Amino acid sequence: LGERVRLKTWDKYRGGLDVKGDMTGRHSYYTIYEGHEIMFHVSTMLPFSKDNKQQVERKRHIGNDIVNIVFLEGDTEDMTAFSPSYIKSQFTHIFALVIYHSEDSSYRLHVYSEESVPLFGPSLSGSCVFHNHDEFREFLLVKLINGEKATLNTPTFSQKRERTLDMLIRDLYQEHINDNRGTMLNRRAFSDVLPDPPKSTRRKEEARQVEFVRFGQALKLDTIVKGDAPTSLATTGLFKRTPWEPECYYPDFPHEVVCGDSWGDARIMAATHEGVYVMDGEHPEGVAHRQIFDKSVQVKQLNCVEAHGILLIRVDKGRDSKIHVFRLLDFEGDPTSPSFEERIRSKADLKDHKLERTKGCNLYAISRPGGSHLRMVVSVGRKLVVLQWRHSAAWTAWCPGSDTDTVDGFHYLREITVSETPTLMTLVDSALAPSAGGVGDNHICVGYKHQWDLVNERTGELTKLHHVDSNKVNLVSAIDIYEDDEPELLLCYNNTCHFQKLTEDCSTEFDFQWNSVPEAIVCAFPYILAFTRDSIEIRLVINGNLVQTMVMPNLIFVTNKSDIFFATTAPEFFSLRQERVKVDKLDKEPSISPPSSPQSNKEIRDRDPGASRPYRIYRIPFRSLTGASCERRCPTPTTPHHPAVLGATTPDGSGGGSVGGGVCKDNTNGRWSSSINNHLQP
């Protein structure tokens, strides 16, 4: 694996070993692989003390390594007797167990990984036997370097890195911003802002004016950083594009959208009263929408789950209402391809795709993307049926060919009875849930006529969350958000938004009002958007201040999974709107104005005076609202574990890693899973 080196006077990467007085042994092994300097901590080369039973001089190095290589003398049966729990540490997350067969001069490798470590490659072959020694050396180094880097994303290390980074940023802020501005703001008069004013009165006044301008610019910069900049014409003038300005996605859709969801980055699947359609607004040849279900399939809810390649639809047939599961692959295809065969499915095609235990359902909710497992809660009257997809998202990403199930992919977990039939449900992921590696429980936020309750997903225990004192209540949505790693819900009803914490102290004083009763709410920090039938209200999340209201006729919210999509009547069908577009057209950039409808207003009316007005689909990219191409909501927080397993430190002291009981210079909890084949066990 490496070359034997003399530690004294060693001038390269030392991995925490002493290179001056032979305090950690005289020799060790060192190598460089693809720019990674690796110093191995070899147990038999570290100092040994007959009087010290703990052998601290050895444990302080090997016990602080992320990856350990264990060489076992014996045969294959002896490998099965090895257990990572034999070695106690808080940092070692990966063991590589190696055995040598002298009969055929081959090596056999087993890899053990702590459950919280993400998947890493390269995958092991079926036999796990290597006859080529050079090939095995390269495979082992690559496997364990990747394993160490993957371990840095576990809660044990990631939260330490985040905490260290947070402290460094706070120190920088206090050193370079707070001191200077704090002293200026604490002055009793602005004329005293100058730290060393000139003696001359005229020069003092000139210096004061210069400092006044500089200080004002600094305050303006603070305003921009806080996210209040879009409220100023200085940053969103007539010649600049506002972050929430919609982009035309599909110019001419003939039907009113009932529900929909984005499919990947470019497509939308929309359900209407005439059937279900797929649109690709970014197709290079401008392909029109295509129908995949006819009008006999009246879809009321629809979700594309790309992580598992499935489509979920709730078909409303009264008491026979059911949820159906299809593979997204069944609807793939390029209409411009000569081999493409268009197939429109009907009610008869639903028979083999119906999900058991969902007959008579009126509502369902799924867990948000990014979780360990896809969960679904189905409301059947006063019963909540909890289901879970059999494969994790990581498993599907690693072996997509093995996740081909439809209705068989969901397995039943439990059934919970509530007091009334829910009108609204939201799944709230817990940082301490078993799916996140903890021991806590996930919850379900259930909305009824006048109140919200929080239901424990495992025990069914119900907690009163929020009651609305009003004769007429219209529940809009419940959005799960996180503040300082604490779960919090944004409850929206009538024209009110209420922030509700889920900790023991559930009180909050921050509510704000919308000008109109919304039909959908979207959070995209630092903004929150409300969609009504004829407008979009944009406010700041931190204080509820109104930023802008955009009036759009016949507005229909579609989805906000990847970007925000909504439909509205094409502007050329409204004379007043058309005149305004003509006046403003030359004042804006050409890329901002949406493309015109393929068929003009006059052509459609001449052909059919009673024709319905087509809808135009718009998109608001999340990257424009948040300022970066990142998730619009904070990921589900995770909590650190305290397992009795081994650990590692890096030269910079931030908690890094090792390979084979060593430390990699390049590198920026109870239970274990044995990874003999492909590092994957379902």
From TrEMBL:
Residues 666-682 have a biased composition (Polar residues). GO terms for molecular function: GTPase activator activity. Residues 653-663 have a biased composition (Gly residues). Residues 254-565 form the CNH domain. Gene3D superfamilies: Rap/Ran-GAP. SUPFAM superfamilies: Rap/Ran-GAP (SSF111347). PANTHER family: GTPASE-ACTIVATING RAP_RAN-GAP DOMAIN-LIKE PROTEIN 3 (PTHR15711:SF62), RAP GTPASE-ACTIVATING PROTEIN (PTHR15711). This is GTPase-activating Rap/Ran-GAP domain-like protein 3. Keywords: GTPase activation. It holds the Pfam family CNH. It comes from Hirondellea gigas. GO terms for biological process: regulation of small GTPase mediated signal transduction. Residues 1-172 form the Rap-GAP domain. Residues 585-612, 629-682 are annotated as: Disordered. It comes from the Eukaryota. The keyword DNA-binding does not apply.
